Amino acid sequence: MELEKPMEIEILEQDEYNLRFILKDVSIEMVNSIRRIMMSWIPCMAIDEVIILKNDSPLYDEILAHRIGMIPLKTDLDSYKLPEDCECGGFGCPNCQCSLTCEIMNDTKNTMVIYSGDLKTNDPNIVPVNPNIPIVKIDSNSSLIFEAYATLGRGRTHIKWQPVSNAFFRYLPQIEFDDSKCKNCPDKCIVSRMCPENLYDFSNGKKPELVEDYWKKCTLCRSCEENCPEDAVKVDWNEKSYIFSIESDGVLPFDMLIEKTFEIFLGKIDEFQSDLEQIEVEE
Amino acid sequence: MIIPIKCFSCGKLIAHVYKPYLEYLKKGESSEKAFEELGIKRFCCRRMIVSHVDLIDDLLKFPRLQ
After folding, report:
1. Most buried residue, A30, A172, A279, B47, by CB count within 10 Å?
2. ipTM of the complex as predicted
């Protein structure tokens, strides 16, 4: 497959948990497949098996196990394998599994909250992303003892294995604003009042001005187009450019995430091609 | 019962924010400001925290059947 132009990526903002970038010169099918691979095909670490030895908390074992499973863990993709690809055949070995334990006895006279930071791991690379996630509350003279096994998995099996909490994209907005038509309604501007993102600046009281970086915020709601009595605004979008936002819990760093996405994407295309060649078409 | 770990709708991690949120409210801040400071932007995540009732404290008073 050859693209007409190479794909362009321009990063808008990036911090620990959010990434926003512009994708240019790609089809919408391709952008959507990138999004879907991010959500359901990238492996990441989560607790899959819990052995509860003692549970004095008010929560049932099943609910407790579910809560423990939901805790996002920092993932090391290089040293672990997916259980189905592992030599042990998914049975559980140090190449595909990491054990975490928790043993807490409440000797104090007050109730006690057990946090994700209380989990002791035997691999320092596999730790909860945040040590302050409450797991349960236990009463005085109660205890909680469990052993948990974290494995790699994919988001299509369960959302605990989803490395991104939110991934979405939208067309790049393009607004054409003809302010010569604004003569007919001086002193008041409905458009600037109706815009939910306040993208029209009407502070001078004469002519509304479209904010320069409107495309970052505009949701393409078309309220300006519909409400302008003079039809001075035209909302349109660029068919080949997208604003892509990814939100992560900190499970995988973003460069790793995007690298892995394209690795899986290319792997899938190769797989599809080799499958196509094997098919014999009957005329 | 106890604050869910992830938002039901979008999957964002929210459990660690509940305690600081209550502390903000105790200080007399509005919940809107608390959410802004804690980085909870969407209303799906906000409703998880606003509508949560921490019943686990009440249940701890009762003896548990073993």
Report:
1. A172
2. 0.91
